[in-house]
Each structure stands twice: as structure tokens, then as C-alpha cells.
Write a structure and sequence with these properties.
Length: 392
């Protein structure tokens, strides 16, 4: 049997496979400190679960409109107005099976063969794979730690060609935790408008920002940039709903119609009961979101202080999301040649699981998710400290 060229060139998601491996080892009794999961360790808030249970019990268990219920799309419009000062109509919203699915719909809707998508590195590892699946070409732009791993217009100018169709902007960022300021977004917006490119603004970590920093949506900066932005967001991170599989886009009606048509053939609507839960998430009390954010901020402060005091490691203080992105170049030698080798030793000899970041475009870095308990973070950092003191 011969597989398609496309399938032959798609790699498995290493974040998902490493997370699954860590879960399996823990279930078998291993005492791991697993900094892998890109998912909150909190339970989904009670009122959200109750809304989905009530929906199930009352028979809300049938197909819904393919792009999501009108109730949910209205609730998303209200949220975008309240939190981001953005005015959308429900027919500009498409609700999908997770933000990952939303992103896949976007690339399938806007890319033709040879169309290029600028992806700032480090990047969430699924972006280039999704662009490839949709037949487009990823143009990877390496950002620098000196600039907080944020894309500059000079870097954009170098990457731009006549085939550039879109740019991905992920703020707050996975894996660096970088959050773009208003001024930085203004410069990128100006570039996008001048060169007529689409901005895909992945804002899935918008609720998770620290030290009083505000998340700003690039679409809110002017009418011109609003028209060329596709917002991607979802319920996985802010509401601790990873398993519910709900994400959404907000875009021009033209793009929303195209994504809706594609989705209507490929998956139909996202889960009906989950959509009722999502309405409760957006319309209900937001206290649980803030409580989780406060807890993540405590963990961010702790893990960053620990990491910066370990010799030979270097990292920036993340302003958002729940990841610490660590440069391990100082640990590389003839036997440990890459971050992957470091990750292997940490797992085999110290029972610590980290994500080596070659798939994120930075082979000398590792990512630590602090979406795990303070106890596990402490245990894991003790072990990483021990590894460095014993081996170097
Ligand atoms: N964007 C980013 C940057 C992410 O880290 C994730 C996490 N999986 C997603 C999108 C997709 O999230 P989900 O499919 O769970 O909504
Ligand atoms: N986004 C999370 C991560 O980066 C979840 C896993 C995935 O979908 O990649 O770990």
C-alpha cells in the first residue's frame, strides 16, 4: 500500500506523544516530575460541567449547525466585544473541535500551492505540519532571545516574498511565554497592511498573562488590521477544557463561510453538549479563570527563580502562557550533543520529563510546562539541579 506524499511527510506530534508516555509511566507507578503537558492540571469549573450534564439529560444530543450553535456564537461575539473591543456578528464565528482544528480549517481555506506562511520560531510544533497538510509552505523566521523571542519588522521584511499569504502571531506564546506589547503589534500590523497579508492571531493563552501585563489583540488596533486578522481562540487553556475539544475563529464572513463549508464536510459540528458547556464558560462567573491565572503566576515566579539559579541554564522570564523555555547550550558536550540527549538523560536517570524543542525550531532548548502542581514543580527542579551538579 502506498501512502500519500502528504502523509509520508507528517510527523507525529511530539508534545502529545511525550505527554502520553509520561502519563503511562506514572500509571505504572513511576515517580515522575513531568513538565510535559500543555494542559492545565485544574479540573473544568463545576458550572461548566453542570451545563453539559444538563444538556445531555435534556436531550441536547443531536447535530447542531455545523459551525456551532447560534447561542455559542453569540456568546463568543459578546466575549470578543467585552474582552477585546472587537465587533463580530455570529456569522463570522466558526466553532470547531479545538483550536487545532480551527487552525487546520484556516490553512485549508486560505492556502494554494506555493503560498507561504511566515512562522516565527520558536513556534508551537503543529503550525508547520498543518501548513504542509494544507499544501502550503512554511517560512520559518528565527527570533532572538535578546528581543524576547518576538518577531521584528526587520525579520519580517527578510522573510517576505511575493508568495507570502499569511503570518502566524501567537501571543501569549507557546513555548516562550512572550507577550507582544501594543507598540510591537502596531509595527507588525503596519507591515501586514502594507504588504496585504493575513495575520493569524493565535490567542489561546490570552487569559494567562502575569505581572499586570495586558493581552492585546492585534485585530483591535485599527479597522484595516481588523479586516485582515483571523483570530484563533478556544476553551482548552483558560477554562481547563482540553478534553472537550472546542476552539473557534473570528474572521471576515468570506473566510468564515469557507471554513464553515469545509468543516460541514469534514467533521460537522463540534460536540453539542460541550457547546452548552462553552456557553456557560463564557457567560458564567469568571472567578475560576482568575483563580487559575493567579496560581499559574505563583508557579511562574517559583520555576523561573529556580531555573535562573541553576548554573549553565539560561532563560527569559515568561510573561504569559504556562511554559519556561530554557537554553541548554551550556550543557552540551561530546556525549550530550542536543537538547534531546539532555531530555533522555533527565528521564532515564532523574525521572524528569521535559520537551526537547527541535520540533519547535530550537534544538538547543527544552520546554518546561508549569501546568503541574507546585509539589511536582519543586520535585522536578530539585532533580534538574541535582543533574547539573552531578554531571558538570
Ligand atoms: N495553539 C497553541 C499555541 C497551543 O499551544 C495549542 C495547544 N494544544 C493550541 C493552539 C490548540 O489547542 P486546542 O486544540 O486544545 O484548542
Ligand atoms: N499545546 C499543548 C502543548 O504544546 C498541547 C499538546 C499539543 O496539542 O501539542 O503541549
Amino acid at each position: 500500500m502506498k501512502l500519500s506524499e502528504m502523509a509520508l511527510n507528517v510527523k507525529e506530534s511530539s508534545t502529545l506523544s511525550i505527554t502520553a508516555m509520561a502519563k503511562q509511566l506514572s500509571e505504572q507507578g513511576a515517580d515522575l516530575a513531568a513538565f510535559t503537558a500543555g494542559e492545565p492540571d485544574f479540573d473544568t469549573p463545576e458550572h461548566i460541567k453542570k451545563a453539559a450534564i444538563d444538556a445531555t439529560n435534556s436531550g441536547f444530543t443531536k447535530y447542531t449547525p455545523s459551525s456551532g450553535t447560534v447561542d455559542l456564537r453569540k456568546a463568543i461575539c459578546a466575549k470578543l466585544k467585552k474582552d477585546n473591543s472587537l465587533s463580530y456578528e455570529p456569522n463570522q464565528i466558526v466553532v470547531s473541535n479545538g483550536a487545532k482544528h480551527s487552525l487546520s480549517n484556516i490553512f485549508l481555506s486560505i492556502l494554494n500551492k506555493n503560498d507561504e506562511v511566515i512562522i516565527p520560531a520558536p513556534f508551537w510544533l503543529s503550525y508547520p505540519e498543518m501548513v504542509h497538510i494544507a499544501g502550503g509552505k512554511s517560512i520559518i523566521v528565527h527570533t532572538s532571545s535578546e528581543n524576547g523571542f518576538k518577531l521584528t519588522v526587520t525579520e519580517l521584511e527578510k522573510a517576505y516574498t511575493k508568495n507570502t499569504k499569511a503570518l502566524i502571531l501567537n501571543s501569549p506564546n507557546n513555548p516562550t511565554g512572550a507577550v507582544y506589547s501594543k507598540e510591537e503589534l502596531e509595527q507588525i500590523a503596519e507591515f501586514a497592511i502594507k504588504n496585504d497579508i493575513i495575520v493569524i492571531a493565535d490567542e489561546i493563552y490570552e487569559n494567562l498573562v502575569y505581572s499586570g501585563i495586558q493581552h492585546i489583540s492585534i485585530a483591535s488596533l485599527s479597522e484595516e488590521i481588523f479586516k485582515r486578522t483571523i483570530i484563533v481562540n478556544g476553551f482548552s487553556k483558560g477554562y481547563a477544557m482540553t478534553g472537550w475539544r472546542l476552539g473557534y475563529t473570528a474572521s471576515s464572513k468570506e473566510i468564515a463561510d469557507a471554513m464553515g463549508n469545509i468543516q460541514s464536510h469534514m467533521t460537522s459540528n463540534p460536540n453539542s453538549m460541550a457547546q452548552k458547556g462553552a456557553v456557560a464558560a463564557l457567560m458564567g462567573d469568571q472567578a475560576s479563570v482568575e483563580n487559575m491565572r493567579v496560581e499559574f503566576e505563583k508557579r511562574r515566579n517559583y520555576i523561573y527563580d529556580r531555573a535562573k539559579n541553576i548554573p549553565l541554564l539560561s532563560c527569559n522570564k515568561p510573561d504569559g502562557a504556562f511554559y519556561l523555555f530554557i537554553d541548554v547550550s551550556g550543557l552540551l558536550n561530546d556525549s550530550l550533543k542536543s537538547a534531546k540527549d539532555i531530555a533522555d538523560v533527565l528521564l532515564k536517570e532523574y525521572s524528569v520529563v521535559v520537551v526537547p524543542c527541535a520540533d519547535f525550531g530550537f534544538p538547543n532548548h527544552i520546554r518546561l510546562s508549569y501546568a503541574i502542581s507546585m509539589e511536582d514543580i519543586t520535585k522536578g527542579m530539585d532533580r534538574i539541579e541535582k543533574f547539573v551538579s552531578e554531571k558538570y
